[in-house]
Amino acid sequence: MASGGSAIRGSRVGAGPMGEQDRGYHAERLQVFYWCANGHELSPYFLATIEPAEIPETLDCPNCGLPAGRDKENPPSVAKLEPYKTHLAYVKERRTEEEAAVLLDEALQQLRARRGRFTAQ
Fold first, then answer.
1. 94 falls in which pLDDT band (50, 70, 90)?
2. Per residue in 30-62, pLDDT tens?
3. Distance between CA atoms of 66 and 37, rounded to whole angstroms?
4. Half-sphere exposure of 110 (CA within 13 A, CB side)
């Protein structure tokens, strides 16, 4: 006959001073519905004793990654992504030779000023 442990027969291991109704499947829960822009419905549960201000307005949809809100008719919009820039777009944004010369001169002056501070010490 196997015996072991000090638990009283019929008792649950890990049961503490809180009653079972305060945790796990027996706790009172509040179901909140969220919808994303793709129409996915989320229905997570929150503890019923939680403050309404602590329930988030938006969640990330686990199906598509888009934000999901509580308004089914007007879900949060999809974030706008910047279009991919080609090399030519970057070339068009380059500075003129005069602007580049002024920036280089300012950078050299700052470096010389720092070097002067270090050699004086």
1. confident
2. 899 999 988 899 999 888 888 989 999 999 999
3. 7
4. 6
pLDDT at residue number 87 = 79
Taking phi over 0 as left and psi of -120 to 50 as alpha, with beta for the rest, 39 belongs to left
User: Which among 47, 51, 46 has a CA at the least distance from the CA of 34?
Assistant: 46
Amino acid making up residue 17: P
7 forms beta bridges with none
Residue the block writes with tokens 């470096």 = 111
Tell whether the model's pLDDT for residue 121 goes beyond 60.
no
Q: Is 90 helix (H, G, I), strand (E, B) or coil?
A: helix
C-alpha–C-alpha distance, residues 64 and 49, integer Å: 30
Residue 47: closest CA among 69, 22, 17: 22
